[in-house]
Amino acid sequence: MFHNAHSPKPLPVIIVGSGLAGLSAAYTALHSGTSPVYILERAVKPGGNSFKASSGINGAPTPFQHAASGDGAFYDDTIRSAGRRLAGGPSSEARAQRERLIRVLTERSTRAIDFLTGLGVDLSVVTQLGGHSNARTHRGAGKTPPGVAIVSALLEKCKAEGGERFKLVTGCEVRKLLTSGEKENEGVAGVEYQTEGGEVETLKGPVVFATGGFAGDTHGLLARYRPDLSGLPSTNEPRPGCHDVLTAVGARLVDMESVQIHPTGFVDPQNPGARLKFLAAEMLRGEGGILLYKGKRFVNELETRERVSEAIMGLPEAEREGELRQWDVQLLLDPGAAKAAEGHVSFYVWKGLLKRVKVKDLDETTRQTLKDYAEAVSGKEGKVDGKGRRAFGHWSLGVEGWDDEAGVCVGRITPIVHFTMGGVVINEHAQVLSSDLGQDQRPIPGLWAAGEVTGGIHGDNRLGGSSLLECVVFGRISGEQAAADAARGGAA
């Protein structure tokens, strides 16, 4: 319930960005005090990249897992996924700070799932994605993708329960953070932003930055930190990153060179040279999908995104289609996998990204690959999967007998720039720091951050399903902290 205590008018809580991190912060701030809550969004429509999320959100243990009480490996999987940036960090203090952030992420994952299901979001289907030792990525049983379902529910709750205290302003660009004084680290006092009509406005209050990453900033931050990735397509809209606004008030950056290449972006046969591509959700592989090059498997599809991407990019590139660097790899789902992922599959088929064909119409090499794989899945003749895959999702083809008339789904995929693990340094309270990772912490008063704009959590590689989780966990922390700060400012 909202507080109704009579007190001096508090400052507003200002949230920059309307993706899942921003909405989680907004909803929590509305329930943590009496302050009005402003969301400032540069796009015309709210939701950000969170709206596109297609695989789900991690949580462990939860009531939806088959062996919830036995899944204590989420922290360990995340540590392992972080790779060299955690294992070989510059200092034990830096490693300890990373571990604290990972501990918060994983240990609050159960509460994150409870929070969303409490809002009416269906998260009853659980899938094992690449890099995970257990099934812990949650989505709904219907056809609505998890990003759409979660973002829509939170936005509606903010509007309905926030009433006049909740204000969403779209089409505005935050250009500057207002500071409390001339000296570094004296604190953030608000924002300066430009409206869609060109007017410059200011708003005073504590600030939560939730503007996302820079995977679509091809000629800006991406070119600055990873020029070697030029030419790769992306899942992100071509928009500039907002990190320079934060560094202008003393925020430090970490892991900016750590950019995740997602191994499976769809190549649209009608427009193969498009730079912006639809993600082929990782859950397609989690439910049983396999990857083929010239009709043969070449990788364990449930390795981490980093390793699957490396395997694909180790193959010969396809002929250049415009300026893009692309590969010609096929994603194939058998009847069992396609049925388990039907909500996604039907959309991809409608978009022309997946094609339904019969087994008998595949080339002979592909048909033989499927027969060999089916024998490994069913354990026939003592065969094992030669690529090391141990979880086969809902693969069914050939397990109870071969059927040439069975229908499979096939589409072309290629690696794409998807997610940026680097960003501003934060602590476990989501405070933005003016100190480097592992140094004595110097929080910037009045400034918090959550979601992809932050760094230090994922290291070399982000586990699928942890981006939405990060948004909920640190969004809720930042919203609560900012609301408390706003109340103190109002009382002063």
TrEMBL record:
Example GO molecular function: fumarate reductase (NADH) activity
> Which reaction does this enzyme catalyse, per its entry?
succinate + NAD(+) = fumarate + NADH + H(+)
| InterPro entries reported in the protein's UniProt record | FAD-dep_OxRdtase_2_FAD-bd, FAD-oxidoreductase_2, FAD/NAD-bd_sf, Flavocytochrome_c, Succ_DH/fumarate_Rdtase_cat_sf
Q: What class of enzyme is it?
A: oxidoreductase
Q: A single Pfam family, by name?
A: FAD_binding_2
Name the Enzyme Commission number(s) assigned to this protein: 1.3.1.6
Its cofactor is: FAD
Q: Can you quote the record's cofactor note? A: Binds 1 FAD per monomer.
Which UniProt keywords are given for this protein, alphabetically ordered? FAD, Flavoprotein, Oxidoreductase
Family stated for the protein in its record = Belongs to the FAD-dependent oxidoreductase 2 family. FRD/SDH subfamily.
Name the job this protein performs: Irreversibly catalyzes the reduction of fumarate to succinate.
Q: What is the name attached to this protein's record?
A: Fumarate reductase
